[in-house]
Amino acid sequence: MTPKTLHLIGAPVDSGKDRKGCIMGPDAYRTAGLAETLSALGHLVTDTGNVVADTNDIAEHNHLIALPQTVGWTSALHRAARDLPAQAVPIFLGGDHSLALGTVTGIADRAAAQNRPLFVLWLDAHSDFHTPTTTSSGNLHGTPVAYFTGREGFDAFPTVTNPVPTENICMIGLRSVDPAEHAALADTNMSLADMRAIDEGGIRAPLAEFLAKVEAADGLLHVSLDVDFLDPDIAPAVGTTVPGGATLREAHLVMEMLCDSDRVTSLDLVELNPFMDERGRTASLMVDLTASLMGRRVFDRPTRSFA
Q1: Which of 7, 43, 78, 126 is catalytic?
Q2: Nearest to 176, CA basis, from 238, 222, 218
Q3: Is residue 306 a part of any domain in this protein?
């Protein structure tokens, strides 16, 4: 694999939901040796530190949790993603999934400036296709895909200048989708692979089909990897555990296929809650998966013990 210029960008976003702890995510990745692991693979790695949320005069909302803070993170992360050096491949260290409100829209602007289409691979148990007017929980980490595809209802947020077409999105690992999201998704042409489809036909086929589409369009590919894409038996450090997620082998296959495609130009690592981890096993697994995405082969994986 050709060495890449990787920028680690801390996004300690903890405003997208009630349960706290994701603020510690970026430092957990650092402690688990993400920079050192990627450097050992031959990449040029720069840790740019943590982004700081913008301040604003938006009032607190009676239903939406931490609306002003989430809007502040969205604008700050949008700039951080949009204004990267030309050759940089950013890895955003979250932080809850509301960070993608900013990262994906910033990357979309960056892609538009290069006159290239942006594709998004959403590896998650949830579709995150709620709007502020449909979410019953008020948790804004369930809204980023709706936002960056240009759905209505985000009046308090920055205007999305380059919405991602829904046909450019693939979701893999779905197993917890609310009725309102299900109805809205039915009106799109997203590629959707829930866990039943994966159980019946395997995880390779939907990903290979999507990667062929990215290749044909000469597109940029943003990957958003949520800890709850994984089965909680192997990745317990997440506040939204849903049984029946991707296995260790399935997750590494996805990462290795992404590496083989050489199409990934940006990455989110989200929803890691170190407070809920077991001796750092989830953080270490996420580092290992990132290493597979960035060129580590199956025979090169380290032996780990958490006994």
Answers
A1: 126
A2: 238
A3: no
Which pLDDT tens digit goes with each residue over 135-188?
A: 999 999 999 999 999 999 999 999 999 999 999 999 999 999 989 999 999 999
78 is catalytic: no
Q: Which residues pair with 10 in a beta bridge?
A: 50, 93
Which residues fall within 8 angstroms of residue 233, CB to CB, at 6 or more apart? none
Question: Which residue among the candidates 54, 109, 128, 277 is catalytic per the annotation?
Answer: 128
Q: How many domains does the chain have?
A: 1
Q: Does residue 43 have an active-site annotation? A: no
Domain with 124 in it: what CATH number?
3.40.800.10
Domain for residue 247, yes or no?
A: yes
Residue 234, CB-side half-sphere exposure with 13 Å CA sphere: 19
Candidates 92, 74, 79, 99; CA nearest to 7 is 92
pLDDT per residue as tens digits for the range 24-71 = 999 999 999 999 999 999 999 999 999 999 999 998 989 999 999 999
The one catalytic residue among 14, 96, 124, 250: 124
**Domain residues for 160?**
5-298
Is 33 domain-assigned?
yes
Q: Is 18 a catalytic residue?
A: no
Which candidate in 7, 43, 78, 97 is catalytic?
A: 97
Q: Which of 54, 109, 181, 226 is catalytic?
A: 226
- Is 182 designated active site? no
pTM, to two decimals = 0.96
